[in-house]
Write a structure and sequence with these properties.
Helix content of chain A is 56%, strand content 0%. Chain A is an all-alpha fold and 77 residues long. The relative contact order of chain B is 0.09. At the A-B interface, helix 2 and helix 3 of A face helix 8 and helix 9 of B.
Amino acid sequence: MRDKIRSIVIENLLNGKEVADDQDLLISGMVDSLGVMRLVRLLEAEFDIKIPAEDVVIEHFGSIDMLAAYMETRIST
Amino acid sequence: MIRLLHQMIAGAADRDADAPAFRFLDETLSYGALAAKSDQVAAILSEHGVRKGDRVGLYLNKSLETAISLYGVMKAGGAYVPLDPGAPAERTRMVMKQCGMSAFITHAPKAQDASEVLERYDTEGLACIIGAQPGNLKSPVLGWDDLGTGLPAPENRILDQDLAYIIFTSGSTGEPKGIMHTHRSGLAYAEAAAATYDVRSNDRLSNHSPLHFDMSTFDYLCGPLAGACTVIVSEAHAKLPASLSKLIQDEQLTHWYSVPFALIQLLQHGALDQRDLSALRWVMFGGEPFPAKHLNALMKSLPQARFSNVYGPAEVNQCTYHHVTVSDLADDRPPPIGQVWDHAEGIILDENDQPVTADHTGELVIRSSTMMRGYWAREDLNASAYYKRPLGGGFPDYFYRTGDLVTDEGGGVLRFIGRKDRQVKVRGFRVELDEVEAALSLQDAVDEAAAVLLKGDDGAAAIVVAATLKDVYNADIETDILTAAARKLPRYAVPQQLIVIDAFPRTTSGKIDKRALARDLEECRLEKETADAR
């Protein structure tokens, strides 16, 4: 799943630019607010889940590591 | 009496040194600490030769260092120049060169980008650099930890008419232009805003706008004047509305000020039903029109707060306001920009510089103590920027020509109709479409380029360009051209899409027909969106 998340982020938000799993996605300016919303839609479609607005927070979307950890909790329950 | 902007800090520190001046994430900077730390920055700058009127670039992410630096620079007698931390290195160097930067302040999160900027800049002209990685640079580099303590700020004879800051904005020739503000114009704005929006020492203000965006002057200047606490919103919070709403709740913000886009995001994705934002008593927005539908919904979800539409180009800081009521939005139009505030005089002029009659549309010109001194080193612009109203004795009144077309709807309530020129707003940021076109048409591959702004109803806007080519088409050419343009333009001005065409639609006089082009490009975009959705 982590690989899938990484490829979604890199292909759709970073124009193919590589990024480390623990690298901050939000401060560096790589991803903007519209990018975050697009990412939410893509993740919802890919994993067939609904991500509620209150879950779209820094603690879950700050890096690929954080995203993977969050998605784990969503898929396994 | 306070005459200079940095005297506000000493004043607030004298009243209550422990009162919080700025907050960022978990850190708090008290007025006492801000006074002491900005003294250190001033002392160091001065020791290295920064003098009155010198320009000092601030290349900083959101952080407490922004507040310390800008007050430090002013204490040294200098003018702070916010540099967009997200701008490409080449553009940053362009701004630095244009205003003959005397010193440069950055910090750890930007150190790597700062190196990229400075490596190809003639740093000999920089008296010192604070916060960068000591590399192969020709000027002394100091760390934030080396600033020491206890040094008094230098003695300077600074007058209220001296330069305090320069804000760079998009210029139609392809070069950004610097709006110069003095201690007087900055302080006059802080005083007028504090009175208009009832800012008091126990208030907590948001700082959502980045420092290089002029809306930040409310947060950085008006807050300290009132002795209030300004909460600097991190880049991450600004991108995640649900985190942002939590911050507004936890920080008990009383005043919010941003572009409509941020508020629409908050409304749509901010999980507002799960937050308690009852401390918020004033929501101010500006930079561009707020679509009525969203504003209405937001006002319903924050019933305790007053809402104000704030208007004014960076050249005059602010000049009109409108306290919005539900009935303003009944006709589904954005709220009016409202009345000229008490601190300014406004006239609506026709094409012949004659005041318009009754409810006719014309250009708003503004005279005010909050007005800029002029554009940095741009005699051409300074000659055309003002309307001079003749007055006896050979000293005319100077009015800034806003370029905004307005109508008086009765009782002095103004409505924004459009622009006289080709300036557009992208999430509140000013962009000259001419500058975007220049960034494309100066490339070897491009023959001609034309840019248009396409707007969505959620406050989002996209610049789309069409171009004809000199070279033969290849599959990578759109990406190549946009990448080259992105090296020259700030991020918000980079076109979202480039469409290569064989020929432009033309008017009968042979000019590019921008209206027909906008229609074509809108269709193209809709087709692409439909294709993407499949």
